[in-house]
Write a structure and sequence with these properties.
The chain is built from ten helices and eleven strands. α2 packs across α3. The chain folds into two domains: 64 residues, no CATH class; 186 residues, Gcn5-related N-acetyltransferase (GNAT) (Aminopeptidase). By secondary structure, the chain is of the alpha+beta class.
């Protein structure tokens, strides 16, 4: 094989190097960002929504330079990293009067997509101050929902790209490593779920999850240009996850407790239960299982 680099599932071969070197030579004043976009255009390396895979391409080119295969132009400007200095969400003064009633008496619920809207700071603040994991900025594809009863928020849900390696899920789906690499984007991860602490409405949490099973795949395809066929989440061992089971999510097993920061085979965080929710009865076939 003439593979010189495998980067995020893309094989870079010896025959690709002259193309990249010629691109750099032909654009001597171009920045690294400009070069990555030109290479994406040359290779038609795009996301399902048609946008260039710009960040992946830049990372790949940097890896090639570090391995001595190409020489990139000097860095012209290093933008500040907003994640390094991101302030914590500020608390909002909202009505926390207890809501105690039946689901029927609560009235119709309104589900709002709030990412990149004026309501996103409120979503972030509610997660930061009322969810046990607090708020962290998601990366990759993501959706944020707030659920309202009248003019009052009652719940917040965040969905993001799925973990690449998850033993219980991978065994349940039964896909190969290559199928997982190609189709992991068809899974959405419920990274945060918060029913506000002053809302005491029986069956509300599972009802919202049932509604999400219809909304997430519709909105994901509209925004990102591809469907999702499967939902997943983790449940901390100190929490029962009753609402997920009531909404027919399937308990699949436990994580190993080794996150991305683990440098050994020993757990570096609590083990969590893995739950999944197939959105289509043919989900295995749709996720690339033969």
């Amino acid at each position: 094989m003439d593979v010189v680099l495998k980067y995020r599932g893309r094989m870079i071969r010896e025959s690709d190097l002259p193309i990249i070197r010629a691109l750099i030579e032909e654009n001597p004043t171009a920045s690294r960002r400009e070069l990555s976009r030109k290479l994406c255009a040359t290779w038609n390396w795009v996301q399902p929504n048609g946008a260039f895979c710009d960040m992946l391409c830049r990372g790949m080119m940097l890896a090639l330079e570090r391995a001595g295969h190409i020489a990139l132009p000097a860095v012209k400007w290093k933008p500040p990293n907003p994640l390094a200095v991101r302030p914590k969400p500020q608390r909002f003064d909202i009505d926390a009067t207890p809501i105690e009633c039946s689901l029927r008496d609560l009235g119709p619920l309104e589900f709002r997509l709030v990412r990149r809207t004026a309501e996103e700071p409120l979503f972030n603040a509610l997660i930061e101050h009322h969810h046990y994991l607090r708020y962290t900025q998601p990366v990759g594809e993501q959706l944020k929902y707030m659920v309202f009863a009248g003019d009052r928020p009652v719940a917040c849900l965040a969905w993001s790209s799925a973990a690449r390696h998850l033993g219980p899920r991978d065994r349940f789906i039964g896909w190969s490593r290559e199928a997982r690499r190609r189709n992991i984007r068809f899974i959405a991860y419920n990274s945060r779920y918060l029913v506000l602490p002053w809302v005491q409405v029986s069956c509300l949490a599972s009802h919202i999850l049932g509604r999400m099973a219809m909304l997430v795949p519709r909105d994901w395809e509209r925004i990102y240009g591809h469907p999702v066929y499967y939902l997943e989440t983790f449940v901390h061992p100190e929490r029962k996850g009753t609402c997920y089971r009531a909404a027919n999510w399937i308990a699949l097993g436990w994580t190993t407790g080794r996150g991305k920061a683990s440098n050994s085979h020993w757990p570096n965080r609590p083990l969590k239960q893995v739950l999944g929710y197939p959105l289509d009865k043919h989900f295995r076939h749709l996720l690339g299982c033969l």
